[in-house]
Amino acid sequence: MTDHRILVIGDSYMTAEVFTRAFAQREIPVDTATMTIAEPTWDASTIHEFEGDPAEVARLAQGYDVVAFHAAPFTADVLAALPGLRLLGCARGGPVNVDLAAAREWGVRVTTTPGKNADAVADLTIGFLISIVRNVPASLRDVDERVAEGRPLAESTFEGARWFGREVKGLRLGLIGYGNVARLVAARARALGATIAAYDPYVDPATVTDATIVSDLDALLAGSDVVSVHARATADNRHLIGAEQIARMPQGSFLINTARESLVDEQALLDGLRSGHLAGVALDVNEPDGPWRDLVAQPNLILTPHLAGATHQTLARGADMLAAEIERFLAGGELRWER
Q: Where is each D-isomer specific 2-hydroxyacid dehydrogenase catalytic domain found (predicted)?
């Protein structure tokens, strides 16, 4: 291990201290640095969702052959400036802030931390599920209005009659995508009494025993009281859920998206809420691209700012996964999550 120099680069989301605790537990010596937040003034077309300036990364990582990080940008220019670099450990499920083609060209291995936030996202999805089927968003808005106007929060013992909802037990939950997060959502929802179906063309139904895998997205939509989106976003599945798909869902159904906002057409969501076809929607987004002012005005909408994976456990898990990967690298073993 002493033949390698290891740098960890912290950022505003995942600090250097989170990394160093994980490496210290494995007795792996590291140096630390923290990125400076900066607006990009350079070509960022080959990477996205990064924090910091590539020139700073190139300067910080000089002389290191292993770098562990979360949001630092590793462009082709950075990789070219670091001829001694051998391994990048990116604490994310997808290394979108790394130019993978350039890494391969320069012989730099890249490993990641898939599924580190799966439990956190699954928890929030279930929280969304319970909230929207029980009319919590609309009732909270009503409470806010009453408080602002100085009116009683409840004017009658039977005030709850305004907010009749549904119990999770007996709900038909349809999952789009059946990877790490969706499987945890399924387990939690099943424990509450929901029945589970999933659509995922990349999953062999014969390997799944805890959910009904359907081969047709339209069939999943038509047979679900609640649809929850967990697919990985690609260039080919933008607006996977649009007006046609929402129309196939039952009248008064619900939709949850804790994956990527590009998977759902926000205008179609707004139309579905306004018409009453959708009884409730919950979204956890970070790049709004649609009629957000009108959406936010809908009483039966939950909107959170991309916090599904934001737990202390997620950070610690990601750092430990990287520390384990780098430990294997130092010992000459196989990497589990190499890209």
A: 49-336
